[in-house]
Amino acid sequence: MNDYADYAGGPREVAPRHLTPLSRADALRLLGDVSLGRIVFTHQALPAVRPVNHCLDGDDVIVSLHDGTTLTSLTAPADGPGLVVAYEADVIDPETHLGWSVVVTGYARLVTHADQLDHYRSVLRPWVAGAMQHALRIQPDIVTGFRLTVQPPTATPAPLDGTPATAATTPPSV
Questions:
Q1: pLDDT digits (tens, 9 = 90+) for 71-114
Q2: How far is residue 55's CA from residue 38's CA, in Å, rounded to a whole number?
Q3: CA torsion 137→30→26→16, rounded to 10°?
Q4: Taking the model in full, what pTM does it have?
Q5: Half-sphere exposure (CA, 13 Å, Cβ side) for 13?
Q6: What per-residue confidence (pLDDT) applies to 159?
Q7: 39 CB burial (10 A radius; 0-12, 13-18, 19+)
Q8: Are the C-beta atoms of residues 55 and 130 closer than 8 Å to each other?
Q9: Nearest-CA neighbor of 86 among 138, 36, 31, 30?
């Protein structure tokens, strides 16, 4: 018996899951519905991941930073586009294995404008003790996401008249 089976109470049968791609707009909407995710960045020339809380400002992802964290060392040249980072958040049910995942890849810069920083302090609720000292703005370049569903994605395109497409058609009787 493997450790996973012992820890999780044994393997459970679940129906096959399917990935349904999300549009950029749907992915950002879902990202705006949660407040915790993971930022991926380069630290000492290696990939690093940290859990952080966030909010959206338009399409930009705003991440709170605290003094003393590795993330506060993220700085970019003033004349450059920022540092390339990825940000991921998801909601996946541990029992049904259904849910969604979104990844944003883009350029990050420290928020330096005092009024903006004060606004983000009032909006973001840190998930760890201590006040937010800094904020990071991620401007998305690439936004990808998917839903985990029981049903495979429908291949039926939506009709041009705006009525909803049906997931399946009934074959004619013989």
A1: 655 665 556 678 899 999 999 998 888 999 999 999 998 888 89
A2: 13
A3: 130
A4: 0.75
A5: 0
A6: 52
A7: buried
A8: no
A9: 138
How many angstroms separate the CA atoms of 82 and 65, rounded? Answer: 16
Pairing of strands 99-110, 36-43: unpaired
3-state SS track over the chain: CCHHHHHHCCCCCCCCCEEEECCHHHHHHHHHCCCEEEEEEEECCEEEEEEEEEEEECCEEEEEECCCCHHHHCCCCCCCCCEEEEEEEEEECCCCCCEEEEEEEEEEEECCCHHHHHHHHHHCCCCCCCCCCEEEEEEEEEEEEEEEECCCCCCCCCCCCCCCCCCCCCCCCC
CA nearest 83: which of 31, 139, 134? Answer: 139
What are the structure tokens assigned to 163, written together? 């009525």
- Measured at the CA of 136, the angle between CA 93 and CA 35, to 5 degrees, comes to 25
Q: According to the model, what pLDDT value does residue 14 have?
A: 67
User: In the structure encoding, which two tokens stand for residue 111, read together?
Assistant: 């928020």
Sign of CA dihedral 120, 108, 68, 63: positive
Which two structure tokens, joined as six digits, stand for 12? 């459970």
Residue 45: pLDDT band with limits 50, 70, 90: confident
Distance in angstroms (rounded) separating the CA atoms of residues 174 and 161: 31
